[in-house]
Here is the input.
Amino acid sequence: MNTQASKYSVLVIGGGSTGAAVAHDLALRGFKTTLVERGEIASGTTGRNHCLLHSGARYCVKDKESAIECIEENMILRKIMPDSMELNGGLFVAVNDSDMAYMPLFIEGCEETGIPYKQYTGEEARRLEPYLSEKTLAAVWVPDGVFEPMRMCMAFLATAKKNGALVLPYTEVKGLHMEGNRVTGARVWDRIQKREYDLYADLVVNAAGPWAENIARMAGVDVPVVPTPGVMTSMTGRLCQRVINRMNVSSDGDIIVPQRQTSIIGTSSWTVDDADYIEIPEDHVQLMYQRGSEMIPQVGKVKPRGIFVVARPLIGRKGQDEREIARTFEAFDHAVSDNVEGFVTISGGKTTTARAMAETTVNVIADKLDVEAPCQTRDTVLLSYRDYYLI
Here is the structure.
């Protein structure tokens, strides 16, 4: 154990993929780590996304920074988290002339960002995926995949617990403790035992996703997080073996992700003020069916198993076009931005980039506390998610 790091305690708020990865990185470097989550692990944004292990190809034309982050982390997660992944690949399919015109830009973007790809004719693509539309003109394979959101978080946290971390689900933060301009801990509510108590730490990490604004306000600071929901429809049956993307600029209903024996169509995009109360617009649901059917007509012949919505925690400002906000991430040291010590926020990014987000965050923490403790998460194979309940 790093004796320098073990002198310090860190409280992580949020038990989604980002918070879980931060807790893992902290514990691996030797910090005394506690994580709190107001619900079950992965019950927020992480547990309600479309489960895509990004290759980065969705961003390779307009958001190259995010594309590079995704492909690098994709390759790392394949090594360290084998129990939580289905490495089935993905196809970007062209079904009209506009899609075909976009293909050269897409291929150029893949080459510039280091994303492996392979081109197929429409006939070859339909042999791989028989339910693809007969209008399919061409396709490009990329190393997309599918993950199990809860298993991913539990794998991070099982390993964190092995290294001494304390994980407290159903523990909601009601307020932050302040001494002058320093955050020193949190008042929390145990939702099982129905009691409030205090947790103190040398540093608090705000990894609450689209709820990060709410936590930041408790310290009197602002973070530029835009809660951006998207509607998804889970269809009965596995209509494709690979992830199917539309070969064009990212738009509504342009991806179908196979998840076990379902097919998840996503997603729309708009902004809200409150990530807890999001109405599902019926026209967004219908658009998922319509756009999904353009790639796989069978979508229109099966019943939905579920319709759901979740808010992404994008880094930006309200009023921006949400499709134009980059999908990269940022760690905010509030001592620098707001003169509030002992408080760091991490937000933005994707579930695919959770490990990298954690590395960036814990590097900030180590620098703040003057601790020499290099990141080890790139090569540390995680325990099985099953071990979460055994440690």
Remarks:
- Residues 320-325 have pLDDT under 50 and may be disordered.
